[in-house]
Amino acid sequence: MSIDQAAVDEVFPSNPLREVTFEIRFPFNLHVNRAIYDIQSALEKDYPLVSRKRLEADEDDSKNLYVFTNQEESQQVKVSEDALIISFEYYKSFEYFLDEILKCTELVFHSSSIKALTRIGLRYVNLFTLLDEANDAAWLRKFVKPLINPERLQTAQPKRFVAEALFEKPTCFLSSRTVYYQRDETDEDQESFYVLDIDAYKEQYVESEKLEAVLNDLHHEIQLEFLASITDKYKRKMRGNSK
User: Fold this and answer.
1) Phi and psi torsions of 129, nearest 5°
2) How much is the pTM?
């Protein structure tokens, strides 16, 4: 199926996106600890809550993780000696997210003398809640295209499944994970749900100045995978058309 650029660029008024995460890794850099005061000073207006954690993989491998949080906007920036992570629970647009990424990375790169990256990743988690659905299997066939064989959804009522595929794309690797859970009728607090978790990443030495171009490529591949994983009926639903 061919997906044109106009389809990739479309912003849906109502979409299932629940979390977006950006992550970069770089060679272990102690300059981060020295620069953390300047980083906090620059971020404190937008990310006023600050905490520090000590991460210990083993007795010979430990590092600091500084966490800057904006509770009102559900946004978080995490900085360690070898990584920077930015996560949003409320996603306005890719352009807005990209601007925040570039602002934070420029700050960390400049203050910590980071010149090259070893990993760049974007992850988009979509949560579909199946509220008041008389037939969850029919919902699956109508709105999404799971990684499992769709014909099996017509011959049996699925209760739960987890599926994952790793693809090598022209510009990156892309992992697509789907999870389906049909609630137990005895559990009134749990709703049925379907998760589409897409993670695009590049694991190779990249100059920091090329970050924006790489992110545009990763976002493009994620959009293609998302559009290929839903039906035209669900696209109309996201546009506000219930038919």
Assistant:
1) -95, 135
2) 0.89
